[in-house]
UniProtKB/TrEMBL annotation, chain A:
Start and end residues of each Proteasome alpha-type subunits domain: 8-30
Keywords: Cytoplasm, Nucleus, Proteasome
Xref: PROSITE patterns: PROTEASOME_ALPHA_1, PROTEASOME_ALPHA_2
Name of this protein: Proteasome subunit alpha type
Family per record: Belongs to the peptidase T1A family.
TrEMBL record, chain B:
Family designation: Belongs to the peptidase T1B family.
Subcellular location per the Swiss-Prot or TrEMBL entry: Cytoplasm; Nucleus
Pfam families named in the record: Proteasome
PROSITE patterns with a match to the protein in the record: PROTEASOME_BETA_1, PROTEASOME_BETA_2
Lineage: Eukaryota, Fungi, Dikarya, Basidiomycota, Agaricomycotina
InterPro entries per UniProt: Ntn_hydrolases_N, Proteasome_beta4, Proteasome_bsu_CS, Proteasome_sua/b, Proteasome_suB-type
Function: Non-catalytic component of the proteasome.
GO biological process, one term: proteolysis involved in protein catabolic process
KW Nucleus (keyword) present: yes
CC terms in the record's Gene Ontology section: cytoplasm; nucleus; proteasome core complex, beta-subunit complex
Protein name per UniProt: Proteasome subunit beta
Species of origin: Asterophora parasitica
Automatic annotation (TrEMBL), chain C:
Keyword Cytoplasm: yes
Subunit field text: The 26S proteasome consists of a 20S proteasome core and two 19S regulatory subunits. The 20S proteasome core is composed of 28 subunits that are arranged in four stacked rings, resulting in a barrel-shaped structure. The two end rings are each formed by seven alpha subunits, and the two central rings are each formed by seven beta subunits. The catalytic chamber with the active sites is on the inside of the barrel.
Classification via InterPro entries: Ntn_hydrolases_N, Proteasome_bsu_CS, Proteasome_sua/b, Proteasome_suB-type
The protein, known as: Proteasome subunit beta
Entry superkingdom: Eukaryota
CDD domains named among the record's database cross-references: proteasome_beta_type_1
GO biological process: proteolysis involved in protein catabolic process
Family: Belongs to the peptidase T1B family.
PANTHER family assigned: METALLOPROTEASE TLDD, PROTEASOME SUBUNIT BETA TYPE-1
Signal peptide: none
Pfam families registered for this protein in UniProt: Proteasome
Organism: Asterophora parasitica
Length: 247, 266, 251
C-alpha cells in the first residue's frame, strides 16, 4: 500500500525527511484492518453500528462489545486494536466523570472528544510508548442536540454527520453520502445502518460477523442503549433482503 | 505516564518494605506533607437545613414525603427545594439536615449510578445496595470526625421486594415499615405506626398518600421550621415517580378565638 | 471573686446510645445467647426489630450492645477476619481464639473505641459451653453467664442468684448443680427479659435467643417442646445452632 519508511519508522519521536511520523501512519493501518464501524447523526439522535467479526464459533454471542457507554448519553465505538479501545473507554469515562465533578452538568460531547484527542496525541510524542491503534467514533445527544465525532490515532478529531472507519469504510462512506441524514429519524437510521454494515461485509474474506448496533435519541430518553431486539431483528431482516436485490 | 524505571515502586519506605512488595494503598507515604492539614477544622454544625422526611411501606411499594423548605436557621430561606431524589430506577432517597452535604451525596450517588449504567452488564443497583453504600460512607465520615450532617431515608422496590431504611450522620441504620427523621420521628411516627402497622400489605396508594398528608399537616402545625408545600415519592415494581409540589390545606382561624392574641385586648 | 467561665464550644459527638440488653449463659454442652430487638435513642424507639445477636460460625455467636453503628460495623469486621482465617488455615477459628481476636481488635481502637459491649457465646474446642464478655476496649474473661446493656443492673443480680446460687444455701445433704439443663436456662432467659421489659424503658418489642449445641450434645432433647424453633446451622461438623424468637411488651 503506502511506502515503508525505512529507518525513520522505528519510533514515534522521529520525523521522516518529508515530515511524516510513520508510527502514527502504521497505527492507522491497524485501524484499516479491523471490522467496520459507522456512526450516523440524524434529526433527533445518533446511531452507532459495528461489524463485529467473529473469529470462532465458540464465542458467546452478544458479548465482547465494541460499543461502550460513556456517562449516560455518550456512545463510543472503536475500530482497530480492541484492547486499546477498552483502555480509551475507561479514560473517556474518567474524563466524563471529571467534567461532571467540576461543572455538575452532563459533559457535552465536544469536551469529551477534545480531552480524548489531547490524550491520544500524548502517545504520539515519545519513543517509549506506542500510539493508540484505534479510530474512535463518539456519538451523543447533549444540550446542543445530536453530535458525532471521530478521533484518529494522531489525536486529530472532526465532527461529522456520518462517519465510517475500518475495513469497509470506503463503501460505507459512499452509502452514507447518499442518505439525507438530517431528515432521517433514529428508527430509520437504524435500518439504514444495518443495511450498510451488511453491505460492506465481505463474505469471501471473513465468514461470520455479528451486528452490534446502539442508539441515542428521543426513543431512549437521551440514554445510550443497545437497539431493542425486535428493531434489531427487523433491521437485519431488511438488510439481508436489500443484499439480495443488490446482487 | 512514567517512562523511568528507577521511579517505579517509589515512594516506598525502606524501613518496612524495601522492594515495594505490598499493595500501593498500604505503603507508607513518604512524599511532601501538608503542613496546613493540622489546622483544618471540620463541620460542627449544619447551616442550610431541611426538616423531617416521612416514609411508609404500602401494598404496592414504598412512599416518601418531604416538604420543599431549606431553612437558614430560623429564616425560611429557600422555599422550592426538592429533598426527595430518585437514584437509578428502583430507589428514592429523602434527606433532612445540611443541604450542602445532601447535594454532595446526590452527586456521589449519581456517579455510582452512572458507573453501574456504563458497565451495561444487566445488573442495576437496588435500594439495599444504595443504603449499604450510604451507610458505609456516613460511618466512615463520622469516624474521621467530619460527618455529612444528614438523616436520610432510603426507600425502593426491586425484584418485587419492598425496602425502607434509615441512615444518619453517625452511620446508625435501622429498618421498619414506617420511618421518619427529625421532628417527624416525635410527632408523625406515632400517627404513621398506628395507621400502617399490620396493614402494610393492604393499604393502597390513595390511602397511603392520605396518611402521609395527614402527618405532613400535623408537622406544619407543630414544626416551626416547616412549610405547607411538599412532595411525595412513590416507588412500585413499575418504577419511581416524584410528584409535583402539593399544598397542604390547613386552618389557622382558631387563633382569632384566643384571648390576648394580636390586637385583641380582652 | 467573679467566676471566669471557660469559653464554650459545641463539638460533634461521634457516639450515641441505642439501648437494648443482651445476655449469655453457658451450659455443659450448649450455650445460650440472647438479646432484645428494640433499638432506641433517647425517648424514641427507632425500630422494634434490629437484631443484636449474630451467628459467626456454627460454634460461635456474638452479641453486641451499645452504639448500634459501631456494633454493626464491629460484627462486619469480625466476620471478615474469620473469613481470612478460614482461607489461611482451612478450618474455622476456635472459640477462645475468636475471643482473643476480639480483644486485639477492640484494643487497636483504644484511643477512639468501638462503643460496644460484646458477649461471645459458643462451644469450645473441648465441647464445653462457653461465654466470654468484653468491655469496649478489649478487657475480657470467660464466665458462666453475663448480662450487658441497659438492663444489666436488673438482670445480672438475678443471674448471680439463679446460676451461681449466690446468697442461697443448698438443701441439706445436697449441693448446687454445676450446670443447669437447657429448659431451665431458657426459662431464666425469658424471665430475665420479660422482667427487664417491665421496668426498663429501653428494653422490649422482641426477643431473639440463639442456642449453640456441641457435637453429640444430649441437651438437644430439651428443644422438643419449644415452639417456633429455627435451625441456622450451615456446616456438617456436628455443632448446631438454633434461633427462637419471642414477643416482648411494646410499651
Amino acid at each position: 500500500m503506502t511506502s515503508i519508511g525505512t529507518g525513520y519508522d522505528l519510533s514515534a519521536s522521529t520525523y521522516s525527511p518529508d515530515g511524516r511520523i510513520f508510527q502514527v501512519e502504521y497505527a492507522n493501518k491497524a485501524v484499516e484492518n479491523s471490522g467496520t464501524a459507522i456512526g450516523l447523526r440524524v434529526k433527533d439522535g445518533i446511531v452507532l453500528a459495528v461489524e463485529k467479526l467473529v473469529h470462532s464459533k465458540l464465542l458467546v454471542p452478544g458479548v465482547n462489545r465494541r460499543i461502550q457507554t460513556i456517562d449516560r448519553h455518550i456512545g463510543l465505538a472503536t475500530a482497530g486494536l480492541l484492547a486499546d479501545g477498552r483502555h480509551l473507554s475507561n479514560r473517556a469515562r474518567d474524563e466524563a466523570a471529571n467534567y461532571r465533578d467540576q461543572y455538575r452538568q452532563p459533559p457535552p460531547l465536544k469536551s469529551v472528544a477534545d480531552r480524548l484527542g489531547l490524550y491520544i496525541q500524548a502517545y504520539t510524542l515519545y519513543s517509549s510508548v506506542r500510539p493508540f491503534g484505534i479510530s474512535t467514533i463518539l456519538g451523543a445527544v447533549d444540550k446542543d442536540g445530536p453530535a458525532l465525532y471521530v478521533v484518529e490515532p494522531s489525536g486529530v478529531f472532526f465532527g461529522y454527520n456520518g462517519a465510517a472507519v475500518g475495513k469497509g469504510r470506503q463503501l460505507a462512506k459512499t452509502e452514507l453520502e447518499k442518505l439525507k441524514l438530517s431528515e432521517l429519524s433514529t428508527r430509520e437510521a437504524v435500518i439504514e445502518a444495518a443495511r450498510i454494515i451488511y453491505l460492506v461485509h465481505d463474505d469471501a474474506k471473513e465468514k461470520d460477523f455479528e451486528l452490534e448496533i446502539t442508539w441515542i435519541g428521543d426513543e431512549t430518553g437521551g440514554l445510550h442503549l443497545p437497539v431493542p431486539k425486535d428493531l434489531q431483528a427487523e433491521a437485519e431482516a431488511a438488510a439481508k433482503a436489500a443484499l439480495e436485490t443488490f446482487e | 505516564m512514567d517512562h523511568f524505571p528507577t521511579n517505579w515502586g517509589r515512594p516506598r519506605n525502606d524501613a518496612y518494605d524495601a522492594y515495594g512488595t505490598y499493595p500501593i494503598a498500604q505503603r507508607p507515604y513518604n512524599g511532601p506533607k501538608d503542613a496546613f492539614a493540622q489546622g483544618i477544622q471540620h463541620t460542627q454544625q449544619p447551616i442550610v437545613t431541611g426538616t423531617s422526611v416521612l416514609a411508609l411501606k404500602y401494598k404496592d411499594g414504598v412512599m416518601l414525603a418531604a416538604d420543599n423548605l431549606a431553612s437558614y436557621g430560623s429564616l425560611a430561606r429557600f422555599k422550592d427545594i426538592q429533598r426527595l431524589q430518585a437514584i437509578g430506577a428502583h430507589t428514592v432517597i429523602g434527606a433532612g439536615g445540611d443541604m450542602s452535604d445532601f447535594q454532595y451525596i446526590q452527586a456521589m450517588l449519581d456517579e455510582l449510578i452512572i458507573d453501574e449504567f456504563t458497565a451495561q452488564d444487566g445488573h442495576t443497583l437496588g435500594p439495599a445496595e444504595i443504603h449499604e453504600y450510604l451507610a458505609q460512607v456516613m460511618y466512615a465520615r463520622r469516624s474521621k470526625m467530619n460527618p455529612l450532617w444528614n438523616a436520610i431515608l432510603v426507600g425502593g422496590v426491586k425484584d418485587g421486594k419492598r425496602f425502607l431504611s434509615f441512615v444518619d450522620l453517625l452511620g446508625t441504620t435501622y429498618s421498619a415499615s414506617t420511618l421518619a427523621t427529625g421532628y417527624g420521628a416525635h410527632i408523625a411516627l406515632p400517627l404513621l405506626r398506628t395507621a400502617v402497622e399490620g396493614k402494610e400489605d393492604i393499604l393502597n396508594e390513595e390511602e397511603a398518600h392520605k396518611i402521609l398528608e395527614q402527618s405532613m399537616k400535623v408537622l406544619y402545625y407543630r414544626d416551626a421550621r416547616s412549610i405547607d408545600k411538599y412532595q411525595v415519592a412513590t416507588i412500585t415494581a413499575e418504577g419511581v415517580s416524584i410528584s409535583e409540589t402539593r399544598h397542604l390545606e390547613t386552618s389557622w382561624s382558631f387563633a382569632e378565638g384566643i384571648r390576648g392574641y394580636g390586637a385583641q385586648t380582652q | 471573686m467573679p467566676s471566669i467561665e471557660q469559653p464554650q464550644q459545641r463539638q460533634f459527638n461521634p457516639y450515641s446510645e441505642n439501648g437494648g440488653t443482651i445476655l449469655a449463659i453457658a451450659g455443659a454442652d450448649f450455650s445460650v445467647i440472647a438479646g432484645d430487638t428494640r433499638q432506641s435513642e433517647g425517648y424514641s424507639i427507632q425500630t422494634r426489630y434490629a437484631p443484636k445477636v449474630f451467628r459467626l460460625t456454627d460454634r460461635a455467636v456474638l452479641a453486641v450492645n451499645g452504639f448500634a453503628a459501631d456494633g454493626n460495623m464491629f460484627v462486619k469486621k469480625v466476620r471478615q477476619r474469620l473469613e481470612w482465617y478460614r482461607h489461611a488455615h482451612a478450618k474455622d477459628m476456635p472459640l477462645r481464639a475468636i475471643a482473643r481476636l476480639i480483644q486485639t481488635m477492640l484494643y487497636a481502637r483504644r484511643f477512639f473505641p468501638f462503643y460496644v459491649y460484646n458477649i461471645l457465646g459458643g462451644i469450645e474446642e473441648d465441647g464445653t459451653g462457653a461465654v466470654y464478655s468484653f468491655d469496649p476496649v478489649g478487657s475480657y474473661e470467660r464466665e458462666a453467664c453475663r448480662a450487658a446493656g441497659a438492663a444489666q443492673s436488673l438482670v445480672q443480680p438475678f443471674l448471680d442468684n439463679q446460676i451461681y446460687f449466690k446468697n442461697q444455701l443448698p438443701a441439706p445433704g445436697t449441693s448446687h448443680p454445676a450446670h443447669l439443663p437447657l429448659s431451665t436456662v431458657l426459662s431464666l432467659v425469658i424471665d430475665s427479659f420479660t422482667s427487664a421489659t417491665e421496668r426498663h424503658i429501653e428494653v422490649g418489642d422482641g426477643l431473639e435467643i440463639y442456642i449453640v449445641f456441641s457435637k453429640g450434645s444430649t441437651s438437644l432433647q430439651g428443644l422438643a417442646s419449644v415452639r417456633g424453633l429455627q435451625e441456622v446451622t450451615t456446616t456438617d461438623d456436628g455443632e448446631r445452632v438454633f434461633v427462637i424468637r419471642r414477643e416482648l411488651k411494646k410499651d
